[in-house]
């Protein structure tokens, strides 16, 4: 009998992607258990989301440490104490060093609000609008030492509306994030998704390019927003 996947989620803020994953676990869509939520910010609303769901949550304030490396040494110790099969970065606003990334190299995932490799870093929606892009979106990828780099697993795109501002675009992209992040977590926990070297493998096949939400079969999307949401 397969043992459910242990998941640790790292947050810094509101934790809406954390909530999407909590909801998917609660609905039985993900064969896993969120064993801990760790925040580097005491006021992160995601901590309340974890508490409401009965999930262990703790704070590790980065400002209490003399440097990034000292913080990361403590962070990886905390993470390891929960023996996670998967570590999910859900709005964790810290650049991680090799002290965290290397030990988690094949089971550390991140979500970014752009169609990577476009617009790594901050202000993605403003940059997309300033560039006149006709489409925007979000990407889930395995995290590496490269900022918002690492092999991309799944993307979701949507049309940019005329006269749109960064806030309205961000809100629409966030709805897509809430579909694709739990879906990737599901795949990983099922053993369907793996990182081998620097290549993503899905169902035993090497991906030559990221999967796209609007190309997935309807059965893959059951409970994750459905075909209508994917085909906006």
Structure description:
Helix content is 31%, strand content 24%. Helix 1 (16-26) runs parallel beside helix 6 (166-189). The strands form two sheets. An eight-stranded mixed beta sheet has the order 3-2-1-4-5-6-7-11, with helices on one face. The protein has a three-stranded antiparallel beta sheet with strand order 8-9-10. The protein is built from seven helices and eleven strands. It has two domains: 1-104, Formyl transferase, N-terminal domain (Rossmann fold); 110-232, Rossmann fold, CATH 3.40.50.170. The chain is an alpha/beta fold. Strand 2 (32-39), helix 2 (45-52) and strand 3 (57-59) form a beta-alpha-beta unit.
Please give the share of residues in helix: 25-40%
Largest sheet: 8 strands, mixed
Mean pLDDT: 94
Extract low-pLDDT stretches: 226-232
Number of helices: 7
Can you name the CATH architecture of the largest domain? 3-Layer(aba) Sandwich
Indicate the CATH class of the largest domain: Alpha Beta
**Main structural class:** alpha/beta
Number of strands: 11
Spatial shape? globular
N-end to C-end Cα span: 39 Å
CATH superfamily of the largest domain: Formyl transferase, N-terminal domain
